[in-house]
Design a protein that fits this description.
single chain; 405 residues; alpha/beta; Nucleotidyltransferase, domain 5; 2 domains; eight-stranded mixed beta sheet; five-stranded mixed beta sheet; 13 strands; 21% strand
């Protein structure tokens, strides 16, 4: 299928260890033309899938010989050729990248140059499982699109408004000064949801808000006057809520036990905490997918769900205490948006904080899922990180052109 669209576009890239997620947006209209993903980069199982905007089904392509992309550069080369084939005459004017970590310095998106790239490379140890691949995507895009602005959009930037006491750990202050603090993540999702809140519920958005980004990665953020004041995620993406395969909140003594009693080294412990824990670990290895757990009769699956719900409830209470109350609660992310079961389990028996669930609205997937009697407005809103990345890339590129003109 080919497209007749021609004109300026923004390409968004989210590069992982063996995948590249992408979207293409028109400017300035912000119409998403296509969204897709290259999986299995560097492996024999590489696949390419995409979906046209407005279509419900994905189209999938597998490589059948040795011509599959072996690295991010080859994957981007393939993507560029493919885009040129299906779009008659597009001009990519800027490329927006999701970058997990911006450290303490970066509180807003930025056009990447050599100096900034060096600074970002100094942050690799803060997010060793994500940052190297994010930066590899930028380098590959720089080579494939010479002269086109590369815009880094940071998942940590949204939370740079935290106070010291909501950012620090109770360890020697020298660690904080060296960058060991609570950064928070999923900031691009929170930024998009905040914009939607302001548009849909302008009065309520300025109050005390909790956003629950529940997916394979999960976190929650507390907002006052549309600014983040606290997050469940901390120094790393392991902290806070249990996730698909990540542990969430854990007593540091457990890690000492693993080292001293079981003789595990840092790499082995990292694998357990990032890859074998969370819903997967709690369910006895059954699955990290909430849909699979919800459909299972195994007691381990039910226990994993109950633990997950218990932790979400606990964080609602904790963040509400920091906010001195609660006016709005928003569910987003893959689980938050799609699981009426989880939303219902979380919101039941929450009358103590002023929440009353509308069971029918929740099952039907309405935006407002709280009852008319509820003192807290409870919502389900779809997030769109790619759109917020594209918006930042367009605005920075436009500002750059205005300054140079």
């Amino acid at each position: 299928m080919n497209s007749t669209y021609s004109g300026p576009c923004i390409l968004t890239i989210n590069a992982g260890s063996s995948s590249i997620k992408f979207s293409l947006f028109t400017v300035p209209q912000e119409n998403q033309l296509i969204v897709g993903q290259l999986d299995g980069i560097g492996h024999k199982s590489a696949r390419f899938e995409f979906k046209w905007s407005g279509k419900s089904t994905k189209e999938v392509m597998f490589w059948t010989n040795d011509d599959e992309p072996k690295n991010h550069r080859e994957a981007l080369d393939f993507l560029i050729k493919w885009l040129n084939q299906i779009f008659s005459d597009i001009e990519i004017i800027a490329i927006g990248h999701r970058v997990v970590h911006g450290g303490q310095k970066y509180s807003s998106p930025i056009i990447v140059n050599d100096e900034i790239m060096q600074e970002l490379e100094s942050l690799l140890m803060l997010a060793p499982l994500h940052e190297p691949h994010n930066l590899a995507g930028i380098r590959a895009a720089q080579e494939s699109f010479p002269g086109v602005p590369q815009v880094a959009c940071f998942d940590t930037a949204f939370h740079r408004t935290h106070s010291f006491v909501n950012d620090c750990y109770a360890i020697p202050r020298s660690f904080y000064n060296a960058g060991v603090c609570r950064y928070g993540f999923h900031g691009l999702s929170y930024e998009y949801i905040t914009e939607r809140l302001v548009s849909m519920f302008p009065k309520e958005s300025r109050g005390r808000v909790i956003i629950a980004h529940l997916g394979n990665g999960a976190s929650m953020a507390a907002l006052k006057n549309c600014a983040s004041v606290a997050s469940t995620m901390g120094f790393s993406s392991l902290d806070g809520l249990p996730m698909g395969t990540r542990c969430g909140d854990i007593d540091p003594g457990v890690l000492l036990y693993m080292m001293q009693h079981d003789g595990l080294d840092a790499e082995q412990i990292s694998h357990i905490l990032y890859k074998e824990s969370g819903l997967k670990g709690l369910s006895g290895g059954l699955s990290n997918d909430m849909r699979t757990l919800e459909s299972s009769d195994r007691p381990e699956a039910k226990e994993a769900i109950e633990y997950y719900v218990k932790e979400v409830k606990r964080e609602i209470g904790s963040l509400s205490a920091l906010l001195a109350g609660l006016d709005v609660l928003v569910f987003t992310g893959g689980i938050g948006e799609n699981s009426a079961i989880i939303r219902a389990k979380v919101l039941r028996e929450m009358a103590w904080i002023g929440i009353e669930l509308d069971e029918d609205s929740n099952v039907e997937g309405e935006t407002i899922i709280s009852s008319d009697k509820s003192k807290v407005l409870c919502l389900k809103i779809h997030t769109d990180e790619e759109r917020i990345i594209a918006r930042h890339a367009y605005e920075l590129n436009r500002n750059k052109e205005l300054v140079s003109s």
